Amino acid sequence: MSFNYFARFALSASLVVLTSAAFGQQQSQAGKGLPQGPMEKTSVRSYPGGDIAGSKVVRTRTESAGREVITETVEVPGTTGRFETSVKTTTETTGIGSDTLKIKREVFGNGPQGPLSLIETSVADQQNFADGRSRTTTNTWAPDAGGRLNLASREVKETKSIGGDARQTETTRYLPTISQPLGESERILTTERRVRPDLVQTETQRTVRDPNGQWQTTETRNQEVRTVSRGEVVEEETVRNVDSAGQLNLSEKTVTRRTTNNGSDQVVTEVYSPYITGVVQSGNSLTLNQRLRVTTKPTTNGGSQIISETEAPDPSEINGRVRVVARTVETVRQVAPDVWETQRQTFTLDGSGRLVLTSEDSQQTKGK
Questions:
Q1: Gyration radius from the chain CA atoms
Q2: With bands split at pLDDT 50, 70 and 90, how would you rate the model's confidence at 210?
Q3: Residue 13: what pLDDT?
Q4: Alpha-carbon gap, residue 231 to 301, rounded angstroms
Q5: Is the pTM of this model over 0.85?
C-alpha cells in the first residue's frame, strides 16, 4: 500500500490548512518574518507519487480605512491539465478598530446553479460594550435548488466579566426545526478564571436538545494552563463525553508543553485516548494516541525553519511501539525586498513502514 492511513491523515490535515478562510484566520509560526499589511500569497502543492492531482491556492489581502478584504481561490487541474478555480472565498471586514465589527464571508463553488455559484454566505456582527461585554451574532445562508438564499443557521456568542479575574462566554446555536425557521439546538458555556498569576483554569459545558426537547449535557472540558517558568508553559485538558447510558466518561486528555530557549520554540502535544486502533486496553484507561512535536528555529537570513513530527502507535502491530509516522519540514526565507518564499515537504509512511516524501508545497508572499 503506497498511500496508507497516515498519508491520508497528514494530507487531509494540511489541505484544511491551505483551504481555510475562516473568520480570524491566523498565520503559522513560520510567518514571524512575513510582511504584514496588503499582500499576495500563492501556494502550489504537488505530489511526487503522481497518484493525486496537485493544487494551487492564491490569497490576496488589502486593507484601508478600517476595511479589510481577503480573497482566496483554490485551483485544481481541469480536463485540459490547466489549473481551474474550484472554490473562491471572499471575506470582508469593516469597522476595524471600532466597537462595532462586521465580517461578511461568501463562498463560491460547485452549487445548484453550476460552477462558481454562491454556496454559502455568512455575516457576523460583533459589538463591544463599555462595560467590557461583547456580543457576536453570526447568520449563515445557503441557497436552495432554485438558487434562493435561505437562513441555515445562527450563532450568538456573548462574553462578560463575572467578577474578579473571571470571564464567561455563552454560545447559543440555532438550526431549522419542524415547527419554526430557527430553534435553539446547542448551548456552550465557557468560564475562564485566573486562579493565580501562574495558573488559568477554563471549564466548558456543551448541552444539546434531546429528541424530547430536553437539554442534556453531552460534553465537558476542563483545562489548566500553568506557567512553569519564564520559558515554559504547560496546558492540560480533559474531555468527558456522554455514553449510551447517559453518563459522562473520560474520553480524551491532552497535555501541551511550550518551551522557549535561545530563540527557538518547541511545542509538544500529547493526546491520550481509551480507543486506539491496534492497542488492547482495559477499562477506561487512557493510552498515548498521538504526540506532535513542533520545533521552530530562526535562520541566519532572518527567516525560520519549522520541523513537525507526528508520533503514534504502529498500526501494523498489536500494542505497537510509538514511532514517527509523519514529518513536515517548512523553511521560510526572504528572496527579495518584502518578498518571502516558503518551502514545505511532507513525509509519511509507505507500505514498508518507511518515511517517504508524499507532498511538496511552494508558497510566495508579497508585501506592499
A1: 23
A2: confident
A3: 39
A4: 24
A5: no
**How large is the average pLDDT for residues 354-361?**
93
Instruction: Provide the grid cell at 7.
Output: 498519508
User: 159 vs 114, which has greater pLDDT?
Assistant: 159
Residue 339 burial class via C-beta count within 10 angstroms: exposed 0-12, middle 13-18, buried 19 and up: middle
Q: Are 13 and 355 in contact (CB under 8 A)?
A: no
The gap from C-alpha 364 to its chain's centroid, in whole angstroms, comes to 22
Q: How many angstroms separate the Cα of 129 from the Cα of each of 96, 103, 157? A: 15, 18, 14
Alpha carbon separation from 360 to 278, 305, 343 (Å, rounded) = 30, 15, 8
- The contacts of residue 89 (CB under 8 Å, 6+ apart) are 21, 71, 72, 73, 105, 106, 107, 108
Cell 503514534 belongs to 312
Cα(312)–Cα(296) distance, integer angstroms: 21
239: left (phi over 0), alpha (psi -120 to 50) or beta: beta
Closest CA to 257 of 280, 225, 279: 225
Backbone angles phi, psi at 78, to 5 degrees: -90, -165
How many distinct helices (H) and strands (E) make up the chain?
1, 20
SS3 label, residue 9: helix
pLDDT of 146 higher than 90: no
Distance, CA of 216 to chain centre: 27
Pair 231, 260: CB distance under 8 Å:
yes
Which one-letter DSSP state was computed for residue 12?
H
Pick from 76-85, 96-105, 129-138: least confident: 76-85
